[in-house]
Write a structure and sequence with these properties.
- The structure is a single chain.
- The protein is α+β, with helices and mostly antiparallel strands and 398 residues long.
- It is built from seven helices and 22 strands.
- A nine-stranded mixed sheet has the order 11-12-10-13-16-22-21-20-18. It has a seven-stranded mixed beta barrel with strand order 2-3-4-8-7-6-5. Strands 1-9 form a two-stranded antiparallel sheet.
- Helix 5 packs parallel to helix 7.
Length: 398
């Protein structure tokens, strides 16, 4: 069984959600989605069982066993496969041959102007649609099997059902192996969610988060990620690394962390956790507050730049696994007045402001950056350095 990190990926770009209501509703999934996005995006999730399959007429009936999310008011779902794409690997005949009576199935769907759904049976995702009026008794129409959804989950249905239940119960890192490095990512309050061919507004995965998730293994240790928008940082104590996203501490002059959250972060680092801080908003009147950090540091208003100078200490961080040159990343409001004991990896060209540096506290570590991850473009430009920072950080996890 294989599946990606807890947001384990891919959705119906679902549900495709708004994708299925667009003219290109039958398009294949373009970007990788997380299971958390799938769960967030749909209004209903039902667990069912294949009741019957008519291979000649290309039809099937699913008995609804359990409403897992939302109340479906469905006893069965009638599926017409003959309406789908007649293409190798995604055809109605292939789906009809895959389905067997008594097979467990998961149906994720969004009930809005109609029913847009993505269904899962062992190792296979397929899309179905239905009109809103009388959908409980009408035939849902098949569009195609979507092989790209295997990036989200690829395994047995019963195993997937357990993951969905755990996720709905609020559990994190449901896919983490014992050796995995667990990364909690605070993001989504100051930057917008990603979008594919059409927007999928689940208010969860940001471009910054997807850049982080590209690091799936370091030194033969799997790396799994969990996303939160809650500044209270739920289950931080279970994480190895906390990534505080762009402007999640300070945004447009507003400080976003409570005293309790500050204390929680300090305790996390003192006990051996690692905190990475992306760029934060500062101004001459309101420098970014630093109650979350042990010791002094001052956030300053800086003009956006792409230029920086790498120190001797920072040569590895800027070359492993990616070689990164000045002019190839985006930097904004930086930091000054650092401690002489801090490790300085890169500064602005005048060497007065911090671009990337680290500070040890107790058994743990802070990694402070001035990265501007505010859009798809700037985050794409910063992605290689984000990957390098993650490789550095994971190497420090004990």
């Amino acid at each position: 069984m294989r599946f990606t990190s807890s947001l384990i990926t891919s959705l119906l770009a679902f549900c495709l959600i708004s994708l299925l209501s667009a003219p290109s509703a039958t398009a294949f999934i373009e970007r990788e989605y997380t299971i958390r996005e799938v769960v967030d995006a749909c209004t209903n999730i039902v667990f069912g069982e294949v009741k019957s399959v008519d291979k000649r007429r290309l039809r099937g009936v699913v008995t609804v066993k359990k409403d897992v999310k939302g109340k479906s008011n469905l006893k069965e779902i009638k599926m017409n496969f003959a309406t789908g794409h007649y293409k190798p690997g995604t055809s109605p005949e292939k789906l009809a041959s895959l389905l067997k009576p008594k097979m467990p199935i998961i149906v994720f769907y969004r009930d809005h102007y109609g029913i847009d759904s993505m269904c899962f049976v062992d190792n296979t995702w397929f899309q179905m649609r239905a009109y809103r009026g009388g959908y409980g008794g009408s035939w849902w129409t098949f569009t195609h099997i979507d092989p790209m959804m295997s990036r989200t989950f690829d395994g047995k249905t019963k195993a997937f059902q357990k993951i969905v239940i755990d996720m709905l119960a609020g559990k994190m890192w449901v896919d983490a192996s014992k050796n995995a490095v667990k990364v909690l990512v605070l993001t989504g309050n100051s930057t917008h969610p990603t979008w594919s061919q059409t927007p999928v507004y689940t208010n969860t995965a940001t471009y910054e988060y997807h850049a982080l998730r590209s690091v799936k293994e370091v030194r033969k240790r799997p790396v799994v990620h969990e996303l939160t928008k809650a500044h209270a940082l739920p289950q931080l104590e279970d994480a190895d690394v906390l990534w505080i996203g762009y402007e999640e501490i300070s945004s447009y002059g507003h400080y976003l962390l409570s005293g309790e959250a500050e204390k929680k972060i300090k305790t996390f680092v003192k006990n051996g956790g690692i905190v990475v801080v992306a760029g934060q908003d500062s101004s001459d009147e309101k420098p970014c507050e630093t109650g979350w950090l042990q010791g002094k540091l001052k956030g300053v208003e800086s003009p956006p730049t792409q230029k920086f100078v790498v120190t001797q200490e920072g040569k590895d961080l800027f070359s492993i696994p990616n070689h990164i040159e000045s002019g190839k990343i985006f930097i904004d409001d930086a930091w000054t007045n650092w401690n002489r004991r801090d490790e300085i990896f890169a500064t602005t060209e005048n060497k007065k402001e911090l671009v990337v540096g680290a500070r040890r506290y107790g058994k743990g570590l802070y990694v402070i950056t001035s990265l501007r991850n505010d859009s798809q473009y700037t985050t794409a430009m910063n992605k290689k350095l984000i990957e390098n920072i993650m490789h550095y950080v994971v190497g420090k996890v004990k």
